[in-house]
Amino acid sequence: MSAALLVPERPAPPFGIDRLLAALAAHRAGRLDTAEEAYRAVLAEVPGHAVALRLLGLLLLGTGRPAEAIDALSGSIAAKSDDPDARTALGDAYAAAGQREAAVAEYRDVLTRWPAHNAARINLANCLLAMGDPAEAIAQCRLALVSAPRLLAAHITMGTALLTAGRVVEAIGAYRTATGIDERSAAALTGYANALLHDRRAIDALDAASRACESGGGAEAWFLRGAAERALGQFDAARISLERTVSLAPCHAEALLALGNNWADLDDPGRAETMLRRAIEAAPGLAEAHASLGHVLQIRADLAGATAACDQAIALRPDFARAHWNRATALLLAGDLPSGFAAYEWRRRDPLFAADFHPPTSPEWRGEALAGRRLLVIAEQGFGDAIQFARFIPQLTARGAQVILRCPPTLARLFAGLATIAPTDGPVPPHDLHVFQMSLPLLLGTRLDSIPAAAGYLPGRKSAEPGPERRIGLAWAGNPAHRNDRRRSLPIEALAPLARLGGIEWVNLQLDARGTELALMHKLPPPPRRIADFADTAALLGTLDLVITADTAVAHLAGAMGVPAWIMLPHAPDWRWMLGRADSPWYTSARLFRQDQPGDWAGVIGRIAAALGEGETAE
Q1: CATH architecture for segment(s) 287-355
Q2: Are 98 and 70 in contact (CB under 8 A)?
Q3: What contacts 286, CB < 8 A, 6 or more positions away?
Q4: CA dihedral 460, 465, 471, 475 (to 10 degrees)
Q5: What is the torsion angle, in degrees rounded to the nearest 10, for the CA atoms of residue 190, residue 195, residue 200 and residue 202?
Q6: How many Å is the maximal CA-CA distance in the chain?
Q7: How confident is the model at residue 6, as a pLDDT?
Q8: CA-to-CA distance for 391 and 453, rounded, in angstroms?
Q9: Distance from C-alpha of 236 to C-alpha of 234, rounded to nearest angstrom
Q10: Residue-wise over 436-453: b if at least 16 C-beta within 10 A, else e?
Q11: Region 152-169: what's the mean pLDDT?
């Protein structure tokens, strides 16, 4: 009988492998509670099981428990020290726990032993970026791209690092490369949209953010889409996008801030205040939210609250120019001119306006003696501002200064009697000192009760025989480029009640295409021809009994000439018109007609029509 063939037995599977595979399957399927229970069961059977510890550590990290993840991953490494993935995950856990120095050390250790481990390198770059070192983050991304030129994560992190470093154009290029590698990558498209917004390319940013939303980009993609829509003035669309952001991420402070600002754009300060307070609750240190709250409280006529909110923003960020600006306007609205104009000096540092200030090389006048010195006064901001603040020039002349006024050419003839004129389209003449025009009330110590020349300081009305009809000029819209023009300018339809009044010879002062539109719609005279500059406009205003105008340069010109002017103001007026009064300390000939509610031009026109029907022209 021959010997039987002895077949060796198959080795038994490692202890706990079935439980481990089941746990991994549950983990991949998103059944995290089941997976965690199974991993722990494996570890109960085989304490120190390296793979189970690593997988449990990843699960704990993914569910927001970095401290527990650190323990599990450290145990995995103790059992199997040559696992670069476990060490990289440990670095991730340290980073998530806020222990960034430990994370960096762990990533660098991985890269010392495994230089081609690009996951560790990109995570190192992100950690360095969070620690405020974008330059080293960029260097790490470049190293990763040497060995993996199409590594999507490297291009995305590179874009973020470049954007943080202020290299916006290069960041756009990095994100564009990322979207070329994967045109549906939500992370790449979101970063691309963010960089485009920083470059003020809102239309392109909206396209990228919209594609990111379609690719499942989540809260950040919707936030950027809303930000782009808001930058384009699409406030209703922005509201929808930002509300979607907040529904996905209720504590997204920047989205709550943007939504609050957007409600202010939509003239709903109540909802704006609610959202801004939520933003502050989510991120008490967000200075922008406090500054925006200050602006909204101004709109709501809570000037003390507005000042306090701006003070809080400044306490958080002392160099925050917009907070100082908002504080200045709240103080000026309240009539505190000394404090308001002191804070108003921050206008020159606000990014929105700083580009308009190009000081010459001469010293700036700080209030010292002026006798015999040539002082260059530089007009700033709009035509109306230049006209309003021209009243201070005689005070400079009285101090012995030889005043040279640098202003737009269209104001040159109007101001010729006040100073030597240096139009902005010509060279800067020789001078000893310079000053920006809107700094003059601060330097001259102006108070509400000491505003000079409120009765007028430019040549006024001509003497003429009264005619059978009142001669009234009408201007209802300002420069469309003005950032608040949609609130201060009236829709042409609102003027219909005025056109129906009898006994009035209307003079159309709207010297643009809208003036012709008024003539066609309401059968009023067309704009006058041959108006070349503000001196011509002044000559025309001098023939009028009354000017009815929106908050435009015409209002200031009429007031500066002493011509009776009825000024139509939005619910939240510019600081110079203050709150709750029908007169103006800046112009004694002005009468103010205010909206009772945002957008209520019908009420304003109704009160003006009633006053005209009673034969009023001035008070």
Answers
A1: Alpha Horseshoe (1.25)
A2: no
A3: 253, 254, 257, 279, 280, 316
A4: -20
A5: -20
A6: 147
A7: 40
A8: 6
A9: 6
A10: bbbbbbbbeebeeeebeb
A11: 95
Fold of 470-613: Rossmann fold (3.40.50)
Beta strands in 408-524 (DSSP E): 420-423, 433-436, 470-475, 504-508
From 133-147, 169-183, 473-487, 530-544, the region with the lowest mean pLDDT: 473-487
Identify the bridge partners of residue 370 per DSSP, sorted by sequence position.
none
Residue spans of the domains in the chain: they are 287-355, 359-450, 470-613
| pLDDT interval class at 358 (50, 70, 90) | confident
pTM value?
0.85
According to DSSP, the residues that pair with 504 across neighbouring strands are 470
Instruction: Please give the torsion angle defined by the CA atoms of residues 47, 52, 56 and 57, in that order, rounded to the nearest 10 degrees.
Output: 90
Q: What is the pLDDT of residues 172-192, one digit of tens each?
A: 999 999 999 999 999 999 999
What are the residues whose beta carbons fall under 8 Å from the beta carbon of 85, sequence distance 6 or more?
54, 119
At residue 520 the predicted structure's pLDDT band, cuts being 50, 70 and 90, is low
How far is Cα 256 from Cα 247, in angstroms, rounded to an integer?
Answer: 11
> Which tokens go with 613?
């029907």
C-alpha torsion 516→517→522→524, nearest 10: -10
Amino acid at 69: A
287-355 and 470-613: same fold? no
How is residue 244 written in tokens?
């979607």
Q: Which long-range contacts (CB under 8 A, 24 or more apart) does 63-72 make?
A: 63/32, 64/96, 66/93, 66/94, 66/96, 66/97, 67/97, 69/93, 69/96, 70/94, 70/97
As given in the structure block, the two tokens for residue 318 are 């002392």
pLDDT at 521 over 70: no
The answer to whether the beta carbons of residues 386 and 428 sit under 8 Å apart is no
Please, are residues 376 and 360 in contact by the beta-carbon 8 Å criterion?
yes
For 280-335, write each residue's pLDDT tens digit.
Answer: 999 999 999 999 999 999 999 999 999 999 999 999 999 999 999 999 999 999 99
The residue type found at 134 is: P
546 touches 566 (CB < 8 A) = yes
**Helix 32-45 / helix 17-28 crossing angle, nearest 10 deg:** 160
- Which segments within 480-611 are labelled E, that is strand? 504-508, 546-550, 565-569, 590-594
- Enter the tokens of residue 506: 């209307």
CATH among 3.30.230, 1.10.30, 3.40.50, 3.30.1560 for 359-450 = 3.40.50
SS3 of residue 356 by DSSP: helix
What is the side-by-side order of every strand in the sheet holding 470-475?
504-508, 470-475, 546-550, 565-569, 590-594
Closest listed residue to residue 252, CA positions, set 293, 290, 222: 222
* Stated length of the chain: 619
Under 8 Å CB-to-CB from 538, ≥6 apart: which residues? 414, 458, 459, 557, 561
Q: What is the mean pLDDT of the chain?
A: 91
Average pLDDT of span 395-411: 97
What pLDDT is stored for residue 515 in this prediction? 60
Alpha carbon 58 to its chain centroid, in Å, reads 39
Tokens standing for residue 441: 């009330």
